[in-house]
Amino acid sequence: MNAKKMFLGLLDTVVKVVFIIFVAMLIVKYAKVAYDYGYHIFNQTAVSSGTGRTVSVTIKDGDTAKEIGEKLFGVGLITDKTLFRLQEMFLSIMVWKKQVPMSLALQCPPKRCWL
């Protein structure tokens, strides 16, 4: 009986340690993801350097930030659709309230080109 209690106690300790390590790994992983998104929200870089190319995009009246992000991602103006939505939410870069054709350059950081 004593050996059984000792085995169960040891098993309980091992399970708790494995669980704590697993939770710590998840916290570290998602903390890195959160930091990366936070960093890129406020430190915007251009998609390409040099002269680049100009692309035309039409934003329709009533398009959501998700739809606009998908359009811009589709033509190569942004590299991350989720980051675009977060930037729109935190920085209020939604300057397109009406349907208007836009010409944007790839070498321009988003905040400078869109504001």
Summarize the structure in short:
The protein is mainly alpha-helical and 115 residues long. The protein is built from four helices and two strands, in the order αβααβα.
Task: Please give a handful of descriptors for the protein shown.
single chain; 2 domains; two-stranded antiparallel ribbon
Protein described:
- There is one protein chain.
- The protein has about 120 residues and is mostly helical.
- It has two domains: about 1-45; about 55-115, no CATH class.
- It contains four helices and two strands.
- A two-stranded antiparallel sheet has the order 1-2.
Topology:
Layout: H1 2-42, E1 54-59, H2 65-74, H3 81-91, E2 100-105, H4 110-114
Antiparallel strand pairs: 1-2
Helix pairs in contact: 1-3, 2-3
Helix content: 55-70%
Cα-based radius of gyration, to the nearest Å: 24 Å
Q: State the low-pLDDT regions, or none.
A: none
Summarize the helix and strand pattern as letters: HEHHEH
Mean pLDDT: 77
Main sheet specs = 2 strands, antiparallel
Strand content: 5-15%
Which class of secondary structure composition applies to the elements? mainly alpha
Determine the N-to-C terminus distance: 74 Å
Please list the strands of the largest sheet in the order they lie side by side. 1-2
Q: Name the assembly state.
A: single chain
| Global outline | rod-shaped
